[in-house]
Amino acid sequence: MAAPSHNSWVERDAAVVWHGFTQMSCYAENQPIVVERADGRYLIDVEGRRYLDGISSLWVVTLGHRVPELDAALIEQLGRVAHSTLLGNGNRMTIELSEALALRVPVDSPHFLYASDGAAAVEQALKIAFQYWTNQGVTGRTRYLALGHAYHGDTIGSISVGDSGFGTDIFDPLRFPVIRAPGYNNPDWAKAAITLIDRHKDGLAAMVLEPLVQGAAGMLVAEPRAVHKVVTAAKEAGILVICDEVATGFGRTGTLFASEQCDLRPDLMVIGKGITGGYLPLAATVASQPVYDAFLGPDLSEKTFYHGHSYSGNALACAVARRHLDLLDDWNVLANVREQAERLGKRLAETVEPLTAVREIRRAGLMTGVELAPPRDGLRWGRKVCAAAVRRGVLLRPLGDVVVLMPPLTITTQEVNLLVDTLADAINEACVD
Length: 433
Hints:
Blueprint: H1 6-16, E1 35-39, E2 42-45, E3 50-53, H2 56-59, H3 68-78, H4 92-102, E4 111-115, H5 118-134, E5 143-147, H6 156-161, E6 179-181, H7 189-200, E7 204-209, E8 213-214, E9 220-221, H8 224-236, E10 240-244, H9 258-261, E11 268-271, E12 283-287, H10 289-293, H11 315-330, H12 333-351, E13 358-364, E14 367-372, H13 381-391, E15 394-395, E16 397-399, E17 402-405, H14 413-430
Parallel strand pairs: 3-15, 5-6, 5-7, 7-10, 10-11
Antiparallel strand pairs: 1-2, 2-3, 4-12, 8-9, 11-12, 13-14, 14-17, 16-17
Helix pairs in contact: 3-11, 4-11, 7-8, 12-14, 13-14
C-alpha cells in the first residue's frame, strides 16, 4: 500500500486544522509543507524532501532539531514527573531552571512567573505593572507607553500595547488606549519617546518596548544608545520598564539578551520562544526584587497576584530549558552567532542587496529582514519569494514584503551560503512585474 502523498496530507490538514495567521480558504494553494521529522537544522516532509529551517520554526529553534542532549533531558524528566501545579506548590526542575536563569537575565534579584507563550507572559507583565502601583496605594498610574510598529503578541492586552497590523484593527473596540511613541524606523523616535515620558509620567504605570529589534515589524533595528537613553528617562521618571525579549532573547542578536547590548536593567522582562530550544512551549515574566516585594503581604490579602496558568512552570519544559542553557555555554553558541552573523551580513551585501527588487536589508545578529520593493501593491512578492525558496529546499516565511531570515544559532558557513544563494535565486525568479 502506497504511503499517503503530500497533497493528501494537505487535504487532511485543511479538513480539520485551523492554522494561525493563515487564510484557510487558500491554505492549500500556498503550497504548505507538511513536516514528518527533522534532522539537525533541516525539516523533512512526508515525502522525504529536506528543507533548511531558515526561520527556526517561527524563531523558536536555537540549536537545531533532535538535539540528543535535549532529547535525553526530556526523557530523564519523564522518568520523574511530567507536570505538577505551581499554584501554592513547587517543582524541583522549575526551581533549578529559575536558579540558572537568575544568573543570566539582566534583572536585579529576579523572580520568575511562568506562562506557556510570549503573549501570555506579556499579559502577566502588564497586570503586574498595574497592580504594582495599586498595591502601594498609588492611584492614577493606569496607562502604558508603547512604540509604533510594536508587536507583543495576540492576547487583548498584548495587542493593546502592540501597534496596528496583523489584522488587529478589527479588535480596536476591545483594546485599551496607550500612549504611542514612534517606532524604530523613525530617526527621532527616542526624542519623541522621552518627550512623552516627561509629559505623561504621572499617569504611566509602565513603558513597554522590544529592546534593539522590533522583529514582527520587519526587523526594525534601533541604536543601542538610543534605547538606553529612553529607558533611563523612564526609570528617572519613576515609570516601570518592561522589556519584551520573547523574540530577541536567547542569543538571536549575538548576546544572550538584547538588553545587554543596550545596557538595560528592566523592572520586568518577558522571555519565551527560544527558552527551550524550540522543544516545548514555555515563557516567563521576570520581575525585579522591588516589583516582587510590592506584592508581599498577609495570606489571601489583596496584595496577592491572583493570576496563574494550569501548566505554569511545566516540569518537562523546564527540564529541557535547563539543559538548553548549559548547551548554549558548552557549545560556545554565542560565538558562532557572532561569527555567522558577520558572514551572513557580508554575503547579503554582496549577493542580495544589489538586486533591484531589494529596498533594504536590516539585521541584528542572526535576526534579518530583507525588504523587497514591489512597484505596486498586490504583487505579493514576499509570499512568492518564500514559495520559490521552499521549492529550492529552504523554508522561509515573509512579513508582508519583508523576507525574514532567522536561522538556528548553530548554523554553519555552508548553510549561510545556501541560505543567501537560495534567497537571491528566489528573488530573481519571483520578483517580476
